[in-house]
């Protein structure tokens, strides 16, 4: 404050201007670092293969080739594999959101003695590394002949996700007590209260959990790679191996077109729901 | 009269008793509904976490090869001692330590700086930039790796093309010769948004009065940052540090996808990005050494837990919980 009174107003304005310039400059730089790879991905998916294979490469294609996209969806049954991803994403997500919301409601609104102890398990599961579980699960599922089937995704969905249980609990804990009392006076049991009072008021969290979980399953590579076989695997795995020329060479630009079609639905869904999603990410991340 | 009183007393007692009965019945109903609500999660926790943990540990004490458990032998701690004479294990562990040591601080510093810049007063287009920076975090990992493959490729990559403007003929094999560095850049790019969003929310939660009070006391921008912003943000930095370390140690998918030869499953990454998880998973999926693989995972689990505990121990020297604000707090 005192320093500022001694400097001339001109110096103060130039100082502020300089700071503004540095701020916008660095923000623009970050923006470029984020955007340039994305744009390069898009334009390269339109390049003819021989143009991609010239040295040094050019940023934009000289001849645009939308046929890459046609090849991408016909070289293997693209939409069938997209259907696998969609089915696993939807079934796992519907189950996960339902079971997580139920558990979150119980932890937030039903007070029983063991509640806090059980909730520490949820917190612990957020931190305990999942790696010790994945391979033993693989061993068990392999013994039960469930590898190569979609059952693991159903079972994972039924088992809820500690992350979303936590998110729902945080949200439901903020509901006013009167809402519950009123429902109880009207003769609602906990199930009616949950279904008719809490769920209809939880649409933003449900939407966030839905999109985040769906994006997780749709984007997952390791689980389908380890647990499924070529005939029923997801798009994420098939994209890696599905685009070979008759001579066994990888057709990079067609892979990129296929990958673009695989990425785009998520990015669009994100833009549609971005305000809720970012808030959801923040609450679930921060309040941990 | 006395008789009457007695009757009254009896009635009262009966009433009280039935009230208690009603209450306990209600408590019982509440307990039942609580467990019904959490039943799916609890069952899943037991069957898909506790049981696998036990089976995994038991497997690590045997030489199970994935076929018939009846053929496998109990070998005690052999798999664990074997790890200590496994050169590849030490290579992968040192690569993983280096990876965590580079990547976690880099991610924390960059995302924190971005959030600071974005949080400055009067920045226009904050909402748009926040969304833009988050896009890489929403792109599935397979897409992310393809984006970076066409940038980092040694012959046809964009980065070498840019460098060859200044030094014609450059063809640096980034993905093999600088595998770990390439991995860091990619991980940073995907993690930018998710890290920045958390820090930005934390910064926006700092009460305005606190900043104004410091300014009235004559704090300049640097002092304000050093004595107000940074201390308030330490619980969030701590939380991000723990999460970042845990996920760095478990990194598997990036080296797998970036390794040459996807058809073979990506189990042969170059030496630079031969991370611990790759080594552990290779034991099972290439050599069918179920016991050794699970033993390696248990060792990593112990390393992660020990490290997390150490970080928690340091917390009291640099994490400020006195300035508890909503959203902060111990995880």
Number of strands of chain A: 0
The number of helical elements of chain B comes to 13
Number of helical regions of chain A: 15
The biggest sheet of chain A, with number of strands, parallel, antiparallel or mixed sense and barrel status, is: none
| Count of DSSP strands of chain B | 0
> What share of the residues of chain B lie within helices?
over 70%
User: CATH class of the largest domain in chain A, anyone?
Assistant: Mainly Alpha
Proportion of β residues of chain B?
A: under 5%
Radius of gyration of chain A: 25 Å
CATH architecture assignment name of the largest domain in chain A: Orthogonal Bundle
What share of the residues of chain A lie within helices?
A: over 70%
Oligomer: heterodimer
Q: Kindly state the mean pLDDT of chain A as a whole number? A: 88
CATH H-level name of the largest domain in chain B... which superfamily? MetI-like
Overall form of chain A: flat
State the separation between the terminal residues of chain B, measured CA to CA.
66 Å
Radius of gyration of chain B: 29 Å
**The CATH topology of the largest domain in chain A, please?**
MetI-like fold
User: How many strands, what sense, and barrel or not for the largest sheet of chain B?
Assistant: none
Structural class by helix and strand composition of chain B? mainly alpha
- The SSE string of chain A, one letter per element, is HHHHHHHHHHHHHHH
